[in-house]
Design brief:
Layout (H helix, E strand, L loop, with lengths): L6 E6 L7 H9 L8 E7 L1 H11 L6 E4 L10 E5 L14 H19 L5 E4 L12 E5 L4 E6 L7 H4 L2 H17 L7 E5 L9 H15 L4 E6 L1 H6 L8 E6 H12 L4 E5 L5 E4 L16 H25 L1 H13 L1
Parallel strand pairs: 1-2, 1-5, 2-4, 3-4, 5-12, 7-10, 8-9, 8-10
Antiparallel strand pairs: 6-7, 6-11, 11-12
Helix pairs in contact: 5-6, 9-10
Length: about 325
């Protein structure tokens, strides 16, 4: 791959007292992992050096730059974001670490908006690193879970969900499965609010009408299914995505099944933003035991999404390519 064609992936440092830098440094120090993309960390070079020394990562250096445009395509780069003299207190929650995480995040998002980087991977931090817009998809190797009432207290879930919100969430999931995951005719399972034996008015008067509304738009959404039945008998794997009504209903099963491998993707926005499913994990920070699979999968997810969107744009711009692609799929 030509150097000028390498994808530029921004990576925020997250909470410097948590496992963020451990996941970042371990992953980026793996042989050949940066062969097809340019890594640009947003954070503190001194904090990165502190973690590298603590983890005893050998033969690995970071190129300190002032702006993303200066990134060296064959090295791991870091843009100094905020005060580089931040004090690292491994395993402790601190206001200074949270402020530094937010500065790095805001700097990276500004560069993403300006087109200086192609996608962004956010290391764990306290608070919401992903966009407040769009809809979060929690992704494992076999499951993709969207949530209607994402940041809503459980007591308020029933009042929050509506036919319009559910229908909009289904539309976003359908579009992102086609655009970002190249699934031509996605099948989406929609969960009920209530468990087996308790379904009734909400399912009949709110959820079912949302499913019917999008079905008229040729979106293949089915349900509502109770969560225990869908996940318990393995039917969830028959669908391309599942829409849960609230966080624990959908994400708890995914975390139980995916362990530390899951990643988070923001659907329904123009920019590509992903994150590992792990939290800051203060209890294991600095012990050289942090799992890196989730961060690595978030990184690959960002790269794959960028490539899929680029390919889809090229197909849309050339009707003949689209025709050939469709014929190939029919004959496969």
């Amino acid at each position: 791959m030509e150097e000028e064609q390498k994808i530029k992936i921004g990576i925020t440092q997250g909470d410097v007292n948590g496992i963020g830098y451990e996941m970042i440094l371990k992953t980026l120090s793996e042989p050949d992992i940066c062969e097809h993309f340019t890594a640009i960390i947003y954070g503190s070079p001194k904090a990165a050096a502190y973690h590298r020394k603590m983890l005893n990562i050998q033969n690995f250096s970071i190129n300190s730059i002032k702006e993303a445009q200066e990134a060296h395509p064959k090295r791991v780069n870091i843009v100094t974001s905020g005060d580089d003299n931040i004090h690292v207190e491994i395993g402790k929650k601190s206001q200074f670490a949270e402020e530094a995480a937010n500065i790095a995040l805001n700097t990276a998002k500004a560069d993403l908006e300006a087109g200086k980087i192609d996608a962004l991977v956010c290391a764990p931090m306290n608070g919401n690193a992903l966009s407040n817009k769009g809809l979060k998809l929690y992704i494992s190797n076999k499951l993709k879970i969207g949530v209607v009432a994402e940041n809503v207290a459980f007591a308020n879930v029933a009042q929050y969900i509506s036919t319009e919100r559910i229908a909009d969430a289904i539309r976003i999931i359908d579009k992102t499965l086609k655009q970002d995951f190249t699934i031509r005719r996605p099948r989406i399972a929609v969960l009920s609010l209530n468990p087996e034996g308790q379904t009734g008015e909400t399912e009949e008067n709110i959820i079912a009408p949302a499913i019917n509304a999008v079905s008229d738009e040729k979106i293949y959404a089915m349900g509502p299914y109770t969560a225990d039945a869908l996940f318990g008998n393995g039917d969830a794997y028959k669908f391309d995505a599942v829409l849960a009504m609230y966080y624990d209903q959908g994400v708890a099963p995914l975390k139980a099944l995916a362990s530390d491998n899951g990643a988070i993707f923001t659907a329904g926005i123009d920019n590509i933003i992903t994150a590992p499913i792990n939290g800051v994990e203060y209890s294991i920070a600095g012990q050289d035991v942090a799992p890196c699979d989730s961060f690595r999968n978030a990184l690959y997810l960002a790269i794959d999404t960028y490539r899929n969107r680029k390919n889809n744009k090229e197909l849309a711009a050339n009707p003949m390519l689209t025709h050939i692609n469709n014929e190939t799929e029919r004959n496969a």
